[in-house]
Automatic annotation (TrEMBL):
Protein name per the record: 2-aminoethylphosphonate ABC transporter ATP-binding protein
PROSITE patterns recorded: ABC_TRANSPORTER_1, ABC_TRANSPORTER_2
Annotated keywords: ATP-binding, Cell inner membrane, Cell membrane, Membrane, Nucleotide-binding, Translocase, Transport
Organism: Halomonas qinghailakensis
Domain ABC transporter: 24-254
Single GO biological process annotation from the record: quaternary ammonium group transport
Gene Ontology terms for molecular function: ATP binding; ATP hydrolysis activity; transmembrane transporter activity
Cellular component per GO, a single term: ATP-binding cassette (ABC) transporter complex
Domain of life: Bacteria
Highest classification ranks of the organism: Bacteria, Pseudomonadati, Pseudomonadota, Gammaproteobacteria, Oceanospirillales
Keyword Translocase applies: yes
Amino acid sequence: MQTTLTSPLTAHSAAKPHLPSAHLSIDGVTKRFGSFTALDSIALQIQEGEFVCFLGPSGCGKTTLLRTIAGLTQQTSGSLIQRGKNISTLPPQARDFGIVFQSYALFPNLTVFDNVAYGLRNRRSDRATIHARVAELLALVDLSGSEHKYPAALSGGQQQRVALARALATEPGLLLLDEPLSALDARVRGHLRHQIKALQARLGVTTIMVTHDQEEALTMADRIVVMNHGVIEQVGTPAEIYHQPASAFVASFIGTMNFLEVTAQANNHALLGTISCPCLPHAYAKDQAAQLAIRPEAVALSVSISELSGDVMGIEFLGAFQRVSLRLNGTEQRLLADVPSRDSATLGLRLGQTLGIHLPADAARLYPAGSNQS
Ligand SMILES: Nc1ncnc2c1ncn2[C@@H]1O[C@H](COP(=O)(O)OP(=O)(O)OP(=O)(O)O)[C@@H](O)[C@H]1O
Ligand SMILES: [Mg+2]
Protein backbone atom coordinates (compact mmCIF):
# COMPACT_ATOMS: atom_id res chain seq x y z
CA MET A 1 0.00 0.00 0.00
CA GLN A 2 1.06 3.56 -0.65
CA THR A 3 1.67 5.38 2.56
CA THR A 4 2.99 8.70 1.39
CA LEU A 5 -0.05 9.82 -0.55
CA THR A 6 -2.09 12.72 0.56
CA SER A 7 -5.27 13.66 -1.21
CA PRO A 8 -5.26 17.27 -2.41
CA LEU A 9 -8.16 17.97 -0.07
CA THR A 10 -6.00 17.13 2.94
CA ALA A 11 -2.98 18.70 1.32
CA HIS A 12 -4.73 22.04 0.92
CA SER A 13 -5.83 22.17 4.50
CA ALA A 14 -2.40 21.01 5.68
CA ALA A 15 0.73 23.16 5.64
CA LYS A 16 1.41 24.29 2.07
CA PRO A 17 5.16 23.46 1.89
CA HIS A 18 4.27 19.75 2.16
CA LEU A 19 2.13 19.69 -0.96
CA PRO A 20 2.90 16.46 -2.82
CA SER A 21 4.45 17.01 -6.21
CA ALA A 22 2.21 16.65 -9.23
CA HIS A 23 3.21 13.99 -11.73
CA LEU A 24 0.68 15.25 -14.23
CA SER A 25 -1.25 18.50 -14.49
CA ILE A 26 -4.17 18.62 -16.87
CA ASP A 27 -5.23 22.20 -17.42
CA GLY A 28 -8.40 23.21 -19.22
CA VAL A 29 -8.33 20.29 -21.66
CA THR A 30 -11.19 20.36 -24.16
CA LYS A 31 -11.69 17.88 -26.99
CA ARG A 32 -14.24 18.36 -29.74
CA PHE A 33 -15.16 15.89 -32.45
CA GLY A 34 -16.84 18.21 -34.95
CA SER A 35 -19.54 20.02 -33.01
CA PHE A 36 -19.59 17.37 -30.25
CA THR A 37 -17.68 18.19 -27.06
CA ALA A 38 -16.21 14.95 -25.66
CA LEU A 39 -14.11 16.70 -22.98
CA ASP A 40 -15.07 20.08 -21.56
CA SER A 41 -12.33 22.08 -19.76
CA ILE A 42 -10.89 19.18 -17.79
CA ALA A 43 -8.64 20.32 -14.92
CA LEU A 44 -6.93 17.67 -12.82
CA GLN A 45 -3.69 17.09 -10.95
CA ILE A 46 -2.33 13.60 -10.45
CA GLN A 47 0.30 13.15 -7.77
CA GLU A 48 3.53 11.19 -8.03
CA GLY A 49 2.92 7.49 -7.24
CA GLU A 50 -0.85 7.86 -7.12
CA PHE A 51 -3.37 5.29 -8.43
CA VAL A 52 -6.23 7.22 -10.01
CA CYS A 53 -9.34 5.78 -11.63
CA PHE A 54 -11.44 7.55 -14.25
CA LEU A 55 -14.96 6.31 -13.58
CA GLY A 56 -18.15 7.10 -15.42
CA PRO A 57 -20.87 5.79 -17.73
CA SER A 58 -20.24 4.74 -21.32
CA GLY A 59 -19.44 7.68 -23.59
CA CYS A 60 -18.54 10.14 -20.79
CA GLY A 61 -15.04 10.70 -22.20
CA LYS A 62 -12.79 8.41 -20.10
CA THR A 63 -10.94 6.87 -23.03
CA THR A 64 -10.70 10.21 -24.82
CA LEU A 65 -9.03 11.74 -21.75
CA LEU A 66 -6.63 8.79 -21.41
CA ARG A 67 -5.74 8.93 -25.10
CA THR A 68 -5.19 12.68 -24.84
CA ILE A 69 -2.73 12.10 -21.99
CA ALA A 70 -0.93 9.53 -24.18
CA GLY A 71 -0.89 11.85 -27.20
CA LEU A 72 -2.96 9.36 -29.21
CA THR A 73 -5.69 11.99 -29.44
CA GLN A 74 -4.84 15.68 -29.79
CA GLN A 75 -6.84 17.98 -27.53
CA THR A 76 -8.66 20.91 -29.13
CA SER A 77 -7.37 23.24 -26.41
CA GLY A 78 -5.73 23.10 -23.00
CA SER A 79 -2.37 21.85 -21.80
CA LEU A 80 -0.68 18.84 -20.19
CA ILE A 81 2.37 19.11 -17.95
CA GLN A 82 4.18 15.91 -16.93
CA ARG A 83 6.87 16.26 -14.24
CA GLY A 84 7.21 19.93 -15.07
CA LYS A 85 7.54 19.37 -18.81
CA ASN A 86 4.94 20.68 -21.24
CA ILE A 87 3.92 17.59 -23.26
CA SER A 88 0.81 19.16 -24.83
CA THR A 89 1.94 18.77 -28.42
CA LEU A 90 4.45 15.91 -28.15
CA PRO A 91 3.76 12.78 -30.23
CA PRO A 92 3.07 9.57 -28.23
CA GLN A 93 6.58 8.17 -28.75
CA ALA A 94 8.10 11.24 -27.14
CA ARG A 95 5.93 10.92 -24.02
CA ASP A 96 6.74 8.88 -20.92
CA PHE A 97 4.02 6.25 -20.44
CA GLY A 98 3.17 2.56 -20.82
CA ILE A 99 -0.34 1.59 -21.87
CA VAL A 100 -2.62 -1.45 -21.63
CA PHE A 101 -5.88 -1.55 -23.59
CA GLN A 102 -9.10 -3.43 -22.95
CA SER A 103 -8.63 -5.94 -25.74
CA TYR A 104 -5.33 -7.72 -25.66
CA ALA A 105 -3.28 -5.69 -28.06
CA LEU A 106 -0.35 -8.12 -28.08
CA PHE A 107 1.46 -8.80 -31.34
CA PRO A 108 0.00 -12.23 -32.27
CA ASN A 109 3.01 -13.23 -34.37
CA LEU A 110 5.53 -12.53 -31.60
CA THR A 111 6.27 -14.76 -28.59
CA VAL A 112 5.64 -13.58 -25.05
CA PHE A 113 9.37 -12.82 -24.77
CA ASP A 114 9.39 -10.72 -27.93
CA ASN A 115 6.19 -8.92 -26.99
CA VAL A 116 7.67 -7.84 -23.67
CA ALA A 117 11.07 -7.06 -25.22
CA TYR A 118 9.52 -4.92 -27.95
CA GLY A 119 9.96 -1.53 -26.30
CA LEU A 120 13.42 -2.43 -25.01
CA ARG A 121 14.63 -3.38 -28.51
CA ASN A 122 13.28 -0.06 -29.79
CA ARG A 123 15.51 1.60 -27.24
CA ARG A 124 18.48 -0.42 -28.50
CA SER A 125 19.17 -2.01 -25.12
CA ASP A 126 21.80 -4.75 -25.34
CA ARG A 127 20.90 -8.47 -25.49
CA ALA A 128 21.87 -9.36 -21.94
CA THR A 129 20.00 -6.39 -20.48
CA ILE A 130 16.89 -7.31 -22.47
CA HIS A 131 16.99 -10.94 -21.31
CA ALA A 132 17.42 -9.99 -17.68
CA ARG A 133 14.69 -7.36 -17.84
CA VAL A 134 12.14 -9.62 -19.59
CA ALA A 135 12.79 -12.39 -17.05
CA GLU A 136 12.29 -9.92 -14.23
CA LEU A 137 9.05 -8.57 -15.72
CA LEU A 138 7.59 -12.02 -16.40
CA ALA A 139 8.37 -13.02 -12.82
CA LEU A 140 6.62 -9.85 -11.69
CA VAL A 141 3.39 -10.87 -13.45
CA ASP A 142 3.74 -14.59 -12.55
CA LEU A 143 4.48 -15.76 -16.06
CA SER A 144 8.03 -17.08 -15.78
CA GLY A 145 8.43 -19.99 -18.16
CA SER A 146 5.97 -18.66 -20.76
CA GLU A 147 8.67 -16.85 -22.76
CA HIS A 148 8.29 -18.98 -25.89
CA LYS A 149 4.51 -19.18 -26.02
CA TYR A 150 2.46 -17.21 -28.51
CA PRO A 151 -0.47 -15.01 -27.35
CA ALA A 152 -3.04 -17.40 -28.87
CA ALA A 153 -1.86 -20.10 -26.44
CA LEU A 154 -2.58 -17.90 -23.40
CA SER A 155 -5.81 -17.25 -21.50
CA GLY A 156 -7.28 -13.74 -21.45
CA GLY A 157 -5.92 -13.06 -17.97
CA GLN A 158 -2.45 -14.27 -18.98
CA GLN A 159 -2.51 -12.08 -22.08
CA GLN A 160 -3.38 -9.03 -20.00
CA ARG A 161 -0.49 -9.84 -17.65
CA VAL A 162 1.85 -9.97 -20.66
CA ALA A 163 0.40 -6.64 -21.82
CA LEU A 164 1.10 -5.24 -18.34
CA ALA A 165 4.70 -6.52 -18.40
CA ARG A 166 5.15 -5.00 -21.86
CA ALA A 167 3.76 -1.65 -20.69
CA LEU A 168 6.14 -1.63 -17.72
CA ALA A 169 9.21 -2.81 -19.65
CA THR A 170 10.77 0.59 -20.26
CA GLU A 171 10.04 1.73 -16.68
CA PRO A 172 7.61 4.47 -17.73
CA GLY A 173 6.80 7.24 -15.29
CA LEU A 174 3.12 6.81 -15.99
CA LEU A 175 1.07 3.64 -16.47
CA LEU A 176 -2.19 4.05 -18.42
CA LEU A 177 -4.78 1.28 -18.26
CA ASP A 178 -7.98 1.44 -20.32
CA GLU A 179 -10.46 -1.07 -18.89
CA PRO A 180 -7.73 -3.74 -18.72
CA LEU A 181 -9.95 -6.19 -16.85
CA SER A 182 -13.34 -5.75 -18.48
CA ALA A 183 -12.95 -8.56 -21.04
CA LEU A 184 -12.12 -11.12 -18.34
CA ASP A 185 -14.49 -13.31 -16.34
CA ALA A 186 -15.34 -12.28 -12.78
CA ARG A 187 -12.95 -14.65 -10.99
CA VAL A 188 -9.89 -13.77 -13.08
CA ARG A 189 -10.84 -10.11 -12.86
CA GLY A 190 -10.90 -10.20 -9.06
CA HIS A 191 -7.53 -11.90 -8.95
CA LEU A 192 -5.88 -9.54 -11.44
CA ARG A 193 -7.32 -6.55 -9.61
CA HIS A 194 -5.27 -7.54 -6.56
CA GLN A 195 -2.22 -8.32 -8.65
CA ILE A 196 -2.24 -4.98 -10.45
CA LYS A 197 -2.81 -3.07 -7.24
CA ALA A 198 0.02 -4.88 -5.44
CA LEU A 199 2.35 -4.44 -8.40
CA GLN A 200 1.55 -0.73 -8.63
CA ALA A 201 2.17 -0.23 -4.91
CA ARG A 202 5.44 -2.12 -5.11
CA LEU A 203 6.73 -0.21 -8.13
CA GLY A 204 5.23 3.10 -7.01
CA VAL A 205 4.43 3.94 -10.64
CA THR A 206 1.86 6.70 -11.13
CA THR A 207 -1.15 4.94 -12.62
CA ILE A 208 -4.38 5.99 -14.31
CA MET A 209 -6.97 3.29 -14.88
CA VAL A 210 -10.16 3.81 -16.84
CA THR A 211 -13.14 1.79 -15.70
CA HIS A 212 -16.92 1.92 -15.70
CA ASP A 213 -16.97 -0.63 -12.88
CA GLN A 214 -17.50 1.22 -9.61
CA GLU A 215 -16.40 -1.73 -7.48
CA GLU A 216 -13.10 -1.83 -9.35
CA ALA A 217 -12.59 1.89 -8.78
CA LEU A 218 -13.61 1.78 -5.11
CA THR A 219 -11.27 -1.14 -4.31
CA MET A 220 -8.23 -0.08 -6.36
CA ALA A 221 -7.99 3.69 -6.49
CA ASP A 222 -6.29 6.15 -4.17
CA ARG A 223 -8.55 8.74 -5.80
CA ILE A 224 -11.48 8.43 -8.15
CA VAL A 225 -12.33 10.95 -10.87
CA VAL A 226 -16.05 10.64 -11.59
CA MET A 227 -16.89 11.85 -15.09
CA ASN A 228 -20.19 12.50 -16.86
CA HIS A 229 -20.84 14.03 -20.29
CA GLY A 230 -17.24 15.19 -20.73
CA VAL A 231 -16.92 16.97 -17.39
CA ILE A 232 -15.52 15.97 -14.00
CA GLU A 233 -18.33 15.65 -11.47
CA GLN A 234 -16.12 14.91 -8.47
CA VAL A 235 -12.57 13.97 -7.51
CA GLY A 236 -12.03 12.25 -4.19
CA THR A 237 -10.96 9.19 -2.26
CA PRO A 238 -13.28 6.18 -2.54
CA ALA A 239 -14.70 7.01 0.92
CA GLU A 240 -15.32 10.65 -0.02
CA ILE A 241 -17.02 9.68 -3.26
CA TYR A 242 -19.20 7.12 -1.49
CA HIS A 243 -20.08 9.05 1.65
CA GLN A 244 -20.04 12.65 0.41
CA PRO A 245 -21.20 12.60 -3.21
CA ALA A 246 -20.85 16.12 -4.63
CA SER A 247 -23.82 15.82 -6.95
CA ALA A 248 -26.98 13.79 -7.35
CA PHE A 249 -25.33 12.15 -10.37
CA VAL A 250 -22.40 10.86 -8.28
CA ALA A 251 -24.82 9.83 -5.54
CA SER A 252 -26.88 7.79 -7.98
CA PHE A 253 -23.94 6.40 -9.99
CA ILE A 254 -22.00 4.98 -7.03
CA GLY A 255 -23.73 2.33 -4.93
CA THR A 256 -27.47 2.33 -4.30
CA MET A 257 -29.22 5.52 -3.25
CA ASN A 258 -32.76 6.44 -2.26
CA PHE A 259 -34.02 9.77 -3.57
CA LEU A 260 -37.09 11.17 -1.81
CA GLU A 261 -39.01 14.21 -2.97
CA VAL A 262 -38.99 16.79 -0.21
CA THR A 263 -39.23 20.52 0.32
CA ALA A 264 -36.40 22.25 2.13
CA GLN A 265 -36.94 23.78 5.53
CA ALA A 266 -34.79 26.08 7.59
CA ASN A 267 -32.39 24.76 10.25
CA ASN A 268 -31.21 21.73 8.31
CA HIS A 269 -34.56 20.08 7.93
CA ALA A 270 -36.61 18.88 5.00
CA LEU A 271 -40.32 18.25 4.79
CA LEU A 272 -41.22 14.74 3.66
CA GLY A 273 -44.97 14.92 3.17
CA THR A 274 -46.02 16.45 6.47
CA ILE A 275 -43.08 15.13 8.46
CA SER A 276 -40.08 17.30 9.21
CA CYS A 277 -36.84 15.29 8.87
CA PRO A 278 -33.45 16.53 10.04
CA CYS A 279 -30.71 16.34 7.42
CA LEU A 280 -27.16 17.54 6.72
CA PRO A 281 -26.70 21.33 6.47
CA HIS A 282 -28.02 22.63 3.16
CA ALA A 283 -28.26 25.90 1.29
CA TYR A 284 -31.80 25.54 -0.04
CA ALA A 285 -34.39 28.22 0.54
CA LYS A 286 -37.41 27.37 2.67
CA ASP A 287 -40.12 25.60 0.66
CA GLN A 288 -37.75 24.95 -2.28
CA ALA A 289 -38.32 21.55 -3.89
CA ALA A 290 -35.37 19.19 -3.39
CA GLN A 291 -34.41 15.52 -3.21
CA LEU A 292 -33.29 13.91 -0.01
CA ALA A 293 -30.70 11.20 -0.71
CA ILE A 294 -30.00 8.44 1.77
CA ARG A 295 -28.33 5.05 1.32
CA PRO A 296 -30.34 1.90 2.08
CA GLU A 297 -27.78 0.80 4.67
CA ALA A 298 -28.23 4.06 6.59
CA VAL A 299 -32.01 3.63 6.99
CA ALA A 300 -33.00 2.19 10.37
CA LEU A 301 -36.19 0.16 10.77
CA SER A 302 -37.95 -0.76 13.98
CA VAL A 303 -41.10 -2.56 15.14
CA SER A 304 -42.11 0.41 17.27
CA ILE A 305 -44.00 2.79 15.02
CA SER A 306 -42.50 6.27 14.79
CA GLU A 307 -43.73 9.44 13.10
CA LEU A 308 -42.27 8.17 9.81
CA SER A 309 -43.47 4.68 8.95
CA GLY A 310 -43.96 2.47 5.93
CA ASP A 311 -45.36 -0.84 4.72
CA VAL A 312 -43.08 -3.64 3.57
CA MET A 313 -43.75 -4.17 -0.15
CA GLY A 314 -40.84 -6.46 -0.98
CA ILE A 315 -37.99 -8.37 0.66
CA GLU A 316 -34.93 -9.35 -1.32
CA PHE A 317 -32.46 -11.81 0.22
CA LEU A 318 -28.89 -10.71 -0.56
CA GLY A 319 -26.91 -12.98 1.77
CA ALA A 320 -25.33 -10.68 4.34
CA PHE A 321 -28.42 -8.48 4.38
CA GLN A 322 -32.00 -8.24 3.18
CA ARG A 323 -33.08 -5.35 1.00
CA VAL A 324 -36.51 -4.22 2.12
CA SER A 325 -38.70 -2.13 -0.14
CA LEU A 326 -41.12 0.10 1.78
CA ARG A 327 -43.99 2.37 0.80
CA LEU A 328 -43.93 5.42 3.01
CA ASN A 329 -47.17 6.15 4.78
CA GLY A 330 -48.46 9.58 3.86
CA THR A 331 -46.44 10.26 0.70
CA GLU A 332 -46.60 6.81 -0.94
CA GLN A 333 -42.93 7.21 -1.95
CA ARG A 334 -40.72 4.13 -2.14
CA LEU A 335 -37.72 3.61 0.12
CA LEU A 336 -35.13 0.82 0.19
CA ALA A 337 -33.64 -0.23 3.52
CA ASP A 338 -30.88 -2.81 4.02
CA VAL A 339 -31.38 -4.93 7.10
CA PRO A 340 -28.42 -7.03 8.26
CA SER A 341 -29.52 -10.69 8.23
CA ARG A 342 -28.99 -11.01 11.97
CA ASP A 343 -31.51 -8.18 12.59
CA SER A 344 -34.23 -9.44 10.28
CA ALA A 345 -35.48 -12.03 12.81
CA THR A 346 -35.78 -9.33 15.50
CA LEU A 347 -37.94 -7.31 13.14
CA GLY A 348 -39.91 -10.40 12.16
CA LEU A 349 -39.71 -9.15 8.57
CA ARG A 350 -42.73 -10.04 6.44
CA LEU A 351 -44.67 -8.58 3.54
CA GLY A 352 -47.40 -6.10 4.45
CA GLN A 353 -45.86 -5.37 7.84
CA THR A 354 -45.79 -1.74 9.01
CA LEU A 355 -42.45 -0.61 10.40
CA GLY A 356 -41.10 2.54 12.01
CA ILE A 357 -38.46 4.31 9.92
CA HIS A 358 -35.57 6.45 11.09
CA LEU A 359 -33.51 8.48 8.60
CA PRO A 360 -30.29 9.52 10.41
CA ALA A 361 -29.64 13.22 9.76
CA ASP A 362 -25.91 12.73 9.13
CA ALA A 363 -26.66 10.37 6.22
CA ALA A 364 -29.43 12.47 4.65
CA ARG A 365 -28.19 14.92 2.01
CA LEU A 366 -30.22 17.31 -0.13
CA TYR A 367 -29.75 17.71 -3.89
CA PRO A 368 -31.64 19.83 -6.42
CA ALA A 369 -35.01 18.39 -7.46
CA GLY A 370 -34.91 16.13 -10.50
CA SER A 371 -31.12 16.25 -10.87
CA ASN A 372 -29.98 12.64 -10.64
CA GLN A 373 -30.36 11.82 -14.30
CA SER A 374 -27.16 10.84 -16.08
N1 LIG B 1 -12.86 9.61 -33.01
C1 LIG B 1 -14.06 10.04 -32.61
N2 LIG B 1 -14.90 10.69 -33.44
C2 LIG B 1 -16.10 11.14 -33.04
N3 LIG B 1 -16.58 10.96 -31.79
C3 LIG B 1 -15.81 10.30 -30.91
C4 LIG B 1 -14.52 9.79 -31.27
N4 LIG B 1 -13.99 9.18 -30.17
C5 LIG B 1 -14.90 9.28 -29.20
N5 LIG B 1 -15.99 9.96 -29.63
C6 LIG B 1 -17.18 10.28 -28.83
O1 LIG B 1 -16.76 10.90 -27.64
C7 LIG B 1 -17.52 10.44 -26.53
C8 LIG B 1 -16.60 9.89 -25.47
O2 LIG B 1 -16.02 8.69 -25.94
P1 LIG B 1 -15.05 7.82 -25.06
O3 LIG B 1 -14.58 6.69 -25.90
O4 LIG B 1 -14.02 8.71 -24.46
O5 LIG B 1 -16.04 7.32 -23.93
P2 LIG B 1 -15.77 6.33 -22.69
O6 LIG B 1 -16.10 7.10 -21.47
O7 LIG B 1 -14.41 5.75 -22.81
O8 LIG B 1 -16.89 5.23 -22.92
P3 LIG B 1 -16.84 3.62 -22.76
O9 LIG B 1 -17.07 3.33 -21.31
O10 LIG B 1 -17.99 3.16 -23.61
O11 LIG B 1 -15.51 3.13 -23.26
C9 LIG B 1 -18.50 9.42 -27.08
O12 LIG B 1 -19.74 10.06 -27.27
C10 LIG B 1 -17.89 9.03 -28.39
O13 LIG B 1 -18.88 8.65 -29.32
MG1 LIG C 1 -13.68 3.81 -23.13
